Amino acid sequence: MGDLDILNKWIEDPENQLIFQEYVKTHFAITLAMNEPDSKTVRKALLKEIRKEKKKSKIYSLRSFMKYAAIAILFLGIGAVLQKNIFDNNTKEIIVPKKDEITLKLGNGNIKVIAADGTSKVYDADGKVVGQQNGKELVYANDPNATKLVYNTLSIPNGKRFNITLSDGTVVYLNAGSSMTYPVQFIKNQNRKIFLTGEAYFDVTHDKKHPFIVNANKLDVQVYGTKFNVSNYQEDDATDVVLVEGSVSMKETGLVGKNKNEFFLTPGYKGTFLKQNKSISNEKVNTSLYTSWMNGNLVFRQETFANIIKKLERHYNVTIINNNRSLANETFNATIETNNESIVQVFNYFKKVYQIDYSIVENKIIIN
């Protein structure tokens, strides 16, 4: 008895039919998740295999033929269903991210729109060029003779990232949904202080005479020449500072006195400032998990689903509505390449791996 005859015999048992169907579903889901074949490819492969077996045995009973037809339909049916977001979710309706613009508020209050793929110049009140934008980077020129603080504010919408080089050479990488207010020129004998809402990675130019300070609302991060990440979104309960290299301290805004109440971080540690009780703590972390966003990656490790949704909305600039409240505090692991994966692909992943059901309605993702 050949392998196919054995399979035919085995499938005659109703219980075995259920097992076989589950196996096919699982096998196909794994294959789809890895390769995402379209239904035409699957149909071709199945018909090819069926023709091979027909040549071998020449004669098939109608019953056997119907079984193979059923198996083929099962494969193709599952393929179609999975490609529609697994069981009744309509992914033919695609998600179109909102198109918000990067804006630069100048010292005189005027708002300038920055095209992320364009070039432009930034002028001061006297018509002098103080900055040059080229693609996703804005670079300010240094004027050592500047005597007046003039601030610009760069605002990055959801779904975009942008880099800026300040006049002292400090490079700042701004994450989606962030804004930073900074001097066009830093002034001699004064601190280099900037103001951040959202998330940014800093590579600060060392200048012992002019301390660099990042104000994150109620927290001041004092910099002593370093590379670090600050996450300070308004909806977060805490401000996180992850030190990659060098030295920084954390201190509640408004406290005076050198080294007073300063909490120093060691490279490889994350400092957490709780906004409500203003306490500061730290822990050893894998810093790459907190800086991977600069390369377009989102890394979630034991992250609550509520926080994952916030970050996905921010990075993809889409609306996600969670109607499954029990999911909010559940934790998940995932690594998402936002440059290569659409938001629908991301939710297909959550559906396949974590059985999270969703649908797309009026350009919104609704979690059922």
From TrEMBL:
Kindly give the InterPro entries that the UniProt entry links to this protein: FecR (IPR006860), FecR_C (IPR032508), Ferrdict_sens_TM (IPR012373)
> Please, which domain of life does this record's source organism belong to?
Bacteria
Q: Where's the Protein FecR C-terminal domain? A: 298-367
From which residue to which does any coiled coil extend? none
Instruction: Please state what the protein is called.
Output: FecR family protein
Q: Which UniProt keywords apply?
A: Membrane, Transmembrane, Transmembrane helix
Specify the FecR protein domain's residue ranges: 153-248
Q: Which Pfam families match?
A: FecR, FecR_C
Gene3D superfamilies per record: 2.60.120.1440, 3.55.50.30
Read off the PANTHER family from this record.
PERIPLASMIC SIGNAL SENSOR AND SIGMA FACTOR ACTIVATOR FECR-RELATED (PTHR30273), PROTEIN FECR (PTHR30273:SF2)
Give me the segments passing through the membrane.
65-82
